[in-house]
Amino acid sequence: MDNSNEKSGGKMERLAERLIEPLGKFANNKFLLIMRDSFMAVTPVIIIGSIFLLISTLGQDLSGNGPLIPQLSNFSESLDVAYGLTMNFTALYVCITVALAYSRMYQIDQMSAAVIGLSSFLLLSIGQIEDEQIDVSSFSANGMFVAIVAVFAAMSFYRFCLNKNIRIKMPSSLPPAVGNAFSSLLPMLIIMLFFWSIRSLLNVNLVDAFNSFLQPIINAGDNIFAFTIYKAANNFLWSFGVNGSGMLGGIFKPLEAQWLLDNASSFASGTAIAELPHIWTTPLNRMVTWTSAAWGLIFWLFVSKVKYHKIIGAAAAPSAFFSIAEPLIFSLPVMLNPFLMIPCILSPAIAGFVAYLATMLGFVNPTFIDMPFVTPPPILGFVSTGGDWRGVVIVLISFLIGILVYWPFFRAYEKYEMKKEQNKNASVGETV
Is 171 left (phi over 0), alpha (psi -120 to 50) or beta? Predict the structure, then answer.
């Protein structure tokens, strides 16, 4: 038995070695790194906006029995303004963070990059000013993907101009701030004229065109099968020691953010919680991932007959409660462990399927409020669903799924470790 398991471990290591290079290239893709860093930077704004929305909700009569905290009713309008200027202006914040992340990646002046990124989207999204007012609807999640495309196009052209010396050359004796400002003048003029002509001269509204054509395709990605596959893929990467959230974040964080923002906007507009448009959001993702893949394993570590399992379980439990699984993944380890890799992949996939199905069938509210990623999942499940206690039940069900999925695998692993201990003690006894 020992030899067979050692061979399995060797096969896993060889497989990991083959995967390291392609996974490393994927993880270091510059576009994905820029997207990941950009949305990580915007996340605090979304969380703060969610808090304003949550507090505003407590002062509203959502059940027909009066507000939960009537004293907050007088502040609802002010809270809604704060919510609007945070979550409903996400596209603007994304413009700045994408431009800054791009400038850091390619070592471009960050001040110029921020101005170019923001101005490009503003000129592309605002066609006219009526009665000294502008339409800001494109500043919300509706315009986020157009903002990303616009900033990438603008920054790529700006970098091209710098590389080809298409700029005003200033004396080196000038302060860097002055030199960079004038150096960016000519490329910035070309970029602004380009985006202005698209929206104002040609009267092409790319935000509306995107929402009418591509948005339905993106929204179609919010389905139970895609979510289940994503959960499996995320933990497949973790099982090889690769940060799945970081690697896939460049692709899925923008989608999760937009879907959460759509839910929050719909709720703020008066849509009933049960009728919110999206199920797959960041909070739902966090409610099922490590509650199944980490908590389920820690349960078995606590009841294991192997002494060091209990020690690792006790050491990893506090961080796992706050959805930080690295101590468990790398210390037991789960990574490259032929016994534990399969349940680590299967448990969040099954838990994700169940949670999505429960939300789809109306057994629990969709999530529309975000919280910091270290928020304990039971609290996240309750708050993000607008105070629905069934969100906590989803977390507990995910935990139970983790326990059940790990059961046969962990028992086999436990027997293997006990056999190793017995052989080790026997060899020590023979030596003595």
Answer: beta
